[in-house]
Amino acid sequence: xxxxxxxxxxxxxxxxxxxxxxxxxxxxxxxxxxxSPRASSFPAATPAEDVCDFRQFADVKKIQIHxxxxxxxxxxxxxxxCHDGVAKDTTSFDGRVCLNxxxxxxxxxxxxxxxxxxxxxxxxxxxxxxxxxxxxSGERPPHRELERALADLHGAKDCVVFVSGxxxxxxTIYQLFKKRDLVLYDSLSHNSIIQGAQISGAVRxxxxxxxxxxxEAILAAERQHYRRTLLxxxxxxxxxxxxxxxxxxxxxxxxxxxxxxxxxxxxxxVLGGTGRGIAEHFGVDxxxxxxxxxxxxxxxxxxxxxxAGCAELxxxxxxxxxxxxxxxxxxxxxxxxxxxxxxxxxREPRRVRAxxxxxxxxxxxxxxxxxxxxxxxxxxxFPIMVGGSIEAALLASRLFQxxxxxxxxxxxxxxxxxARLRFFLSSSHTREQVRRALDLVARELPLVHEEASAMxxxxxxxxxxxxxx
Length: 469
Ligand SMILES: Cc1ncc(COP(=O)(O)O)c(C=O)c1O
What we know:
By secondary structure, this protein is an alpha/beta fold.
C-alpha cells in the first residue's frame, strides 16, 4: 500500500523505484519516432491570444446568458442570498423576515444549544482542523464516535466519513467498480452518483425513475455480460420527494447477484419511526443493502458524507478511495456536531413525528387547494408543478417579495414542462406557516400564468417585428 508521506517524492514513490521509473521513461522516449516537443521549437505557431482568456470560455458565456435570463425573470435576487443568522422555519435577509422553505435542516437541529455545545467542546479540545489526511496525520475521537454512530444507525459493521457528500458518491463508485462492471442507476439520481459512475470506467446505464420492471428487464438482458453490477438509488428523491420500492430492489439484487447502494442524503431523519431512513420505513433488514451512503449536510447539520457497510468495504475506501486518502480529515467540531445530531434524533423522536405530521398536512392542504404536487408522497420534499420555467421563476419572485423564500427549479435542471417550486419542510414548520405559503401560491399562480403568457406574447411580437426589418 502506498500512503502519502512527506519523505517520499510528490508521486509517493520510494527513491529506488523513482530511478527505475526514470530509466524506463528515458527508454520509452528514445524509441519515439518523432522528436519530442521540447526538442523542436515549440510552439510551432503562436496560439491566438484568446486561448488564455477566461472570458472566451463557452461556460463563462453560458453563465452570462443564464444570469441575463434570471434578471429578466426577476429571480437573480434569489440566488447566493446572505442570511442574517441561523436559518430555521423562518430566516431573515437584511432584517427582512421570511418563511423559509429552502433548508435541509429536516429536524430543526441547526444552531441548537446541544449542537453548538458539541462543536465548542471539540473546538476547545482538538482545534478547528484535522490538519491533514487521517491515515497520515491521525484521527480525533469525534471521527471515531461519528463513524460508530452512523454504522449503528444503519445496522452496519463499520463506516467511513468523507469531507464532502458529493465526493463520497464520486470516489466510492470510482473505487469499487471498474471497466468490466456495470452501474445501473435511477434516471433521477443525484449528479454525484452519475459523476462517480462516469469516472469509474464501468459501463453505466440509467433505468427509468423508480420503474423496477424496467430495471429487471435490463438486468435480465445485460447482467450476464458483466463481472460486477451495482444498482444505485436514493432513499428519498430530492427533486420529487418520492421513494423507491426497497424490498423489491433487495430481491432484484439477490436474484441477479448485484451490489445495492442507497443514497440516504434526504431519507435520514425523514423516513422511519426514528428517522433511520428507508430500511426502517419499510421494516426491512438493512443488511440487504450493501452500501449505505448518506450526507452529513442535511439532518445531521454538518458537512460531509459517509459510507456504511461491511468491514471490508469500509477498509477498502479508507485505504484506497482518493477522496478520502488524499483529502483532509473532517474538521473535529463538524464531526462532533453530526454525532450529537444523531444522538438528538434518537433521543427526541417527536421531531421525526412532527416532520412526518407536517409533511402529511402539506400534501393534503396543497391537494385541497388544487395544486399539482407531482410525485410527492408526503416526505418533507414537495414540488409544486407550475407548467414551465417562466412561471416557476415569476412565482418564486412574487413569493419572495411577499415574504416566502422557496427556490424555483427550472430548465435545464429539470425538463421544461417539469419546472417547479421545491418546498423543503422541517419539523419546526407549523400548519399556519404551511397554509400561509400555500394560500399565497394558489392566489398568485393564476396571475403568474397571465404574466407569463403576456411575456411570451410580447417576445413573439418583437420577434415578428424583427422579421419585418
Ligand atoms: C441525493 C444526494 N446525494 C448527495 C448529495 C451531495 O451532498 P453534499 O451537498 O453534502 O455534498 C446531495 C446534495 O444535496 C444529494 O441530494
